[in-house]
C-alpha cells in the first residue's frame, strides 16, 4: 500500500490531461476557418427570425381549389403554416451559427451547426429565411442530403448568379428535402398574401427546379 499515494497522484494527473484533451477536441470547430458571428451579423440573424415569426396566417387570398391542389406545407412539416412554429422548427435543428468561407454555397450544415458565408448577410430577409429553412432540413438526416444536379441543368441560382448548380451536389431527389420545404413555404406566403403571386410563383418554381426526378 506504500505506493498508493503516488499512484493516485499519477491517476489524477492522467485524468486532468485526459479532460484537457477532450475539451480541446470539443472546442475544435468542424469548419476550418470559421469564427463567431459578430454583433452586426447576430443582429441580422435575429431580424431574420423576427420577420419569420411575423408571418402568421389569417385568410387565404387565393381560391380554395388552387390552394388544395398545391399546398404541401402541412404534409411536409407536420403542422399547419405558422411563421412562429417554423421559427421553432428551425431553432430545434440548428444549435449554432458561425461565419466563414462557404465556397460555392451560401451556407453549409454539419452536426447541428450552420456555417454562414459572407453572401448570407447581404441577402434580403426572405432569402435569409429560405437559406435557414433549407439548412435546417439537413438536420433530419442523410435522406435529405443532395444529389448532383445534371450537367445541363439550365436554371439560374436566384440568390447568386455566380453559383452554377450544374454538376454540383445542389439538387434533391426527394420532394420534401431542403428545396421542397422552401417551395412549400413560398406557396403559403403567396396563398396568404405575404407575397404577390408573381414573386411567390417565380420563387416557388425556382426551388422546385432543384428537385430532380429520375
Ligand atoms: Zn443543402
Label this structure with key terms.
3 strands; binds zinc ion; 3-stranded mixed β-sheet; mainly alpha; 46% helix
Overall 3D geometry? Answer: globular
Low-confidence stretches: 1-6, 20-28
Mean pLDDT: 89
Outline the biggest β-sheet: 3 strands, mixed
Distance between the termini: 72 Å
What is the N-to-C succession of helices and strands? Answer: HHHHHEEEHHH
Please give the radius of gyration in angstroms: 22 Å
Number of strands: 3
Small molecules held by this entry: zinc ion
Q: What number of structural domains do the residues give?
A: 2
Describe the protein's architecture and organization.
The longest helix is centred in the first third of the chain and has 24 residues, at 4-27. The model is unreliable at 1-6 and 20-28 (pLDDT under 50). Helix 2 crosses helix 5 (83-91). 26% of the residues are buried. The protein folds into 2 domains: 1-30; 36-208, no CATH class. It has 214 residues and is mainly alpha-helical. The protein has helices at residues 4-27, 39-53, 64-70, 73-77, 83-91, 125-137, 178-191, 197-208; strands at residues 96-99, 107-110, 113-116. The site of zinc ion has 4 residues, from loops.
Amino acid at each position: 500500500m506504500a505506493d498508493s499515494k503516488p499512484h493516485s497522484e499519477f491517476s489524477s494527473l492522467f485524468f486532468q490531461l485526459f479532460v484537457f484533451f477532450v475539451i480541446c477536441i470539443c472546442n475544435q470547430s468542424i469548419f476550418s476557418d470559421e469564427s463567431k458571428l459578430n454583433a452586426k451579423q447576430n443582429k441580422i440573424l435575429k431580424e431574420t427570425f423576427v420577420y419569420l415569426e411575423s408571418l402568421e396566417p389569417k385568410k387565404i387570398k387565393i381560391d380554395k381549389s388552387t390552394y388544395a391542389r398545391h399546398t404541401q406545407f402541412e404534409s411536409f412539416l407536420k403542422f399547419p403554416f405558422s411563421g412562429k412554429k417554423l421559427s421553432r422548427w428551425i431553432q430545434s435543428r440548428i444549435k449554432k451559427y458561425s461565419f466563414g468561407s462557404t465556397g460555392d454555397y451560401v451556407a453549409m450544415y454539419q452536426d447541428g451547426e450552420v456555417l454562414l458565408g459572407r453572401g448570407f448577410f447581404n441577402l434580403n430577409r426572405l432569402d435569409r429565411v429560405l437559406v435557414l429553412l433549407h439548412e435546417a432540413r439537413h438536420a433530419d438526416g442523410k435522406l435529405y442530403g443532395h444529389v448532383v444536379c445534371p450537367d445541363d441543368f439550365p436554371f439560374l441560382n436566384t440568390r447568386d448568379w455566380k453559383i452554377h448548380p450544374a454538376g454540383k451536389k445542389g439538387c434533391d431527389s426527394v420532394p420534401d428535402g431542403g428545396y421542397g420545404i422552401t417551395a412549400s413555404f413560398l406557396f403559403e406566403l403567396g396563398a396568404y398574401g405575404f407575397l404577390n403571386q408573381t414573386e411567390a410563383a417565380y420563387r416557388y418554381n425556382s426551388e422546385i427546379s432543384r428537385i430532380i426526378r429520375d
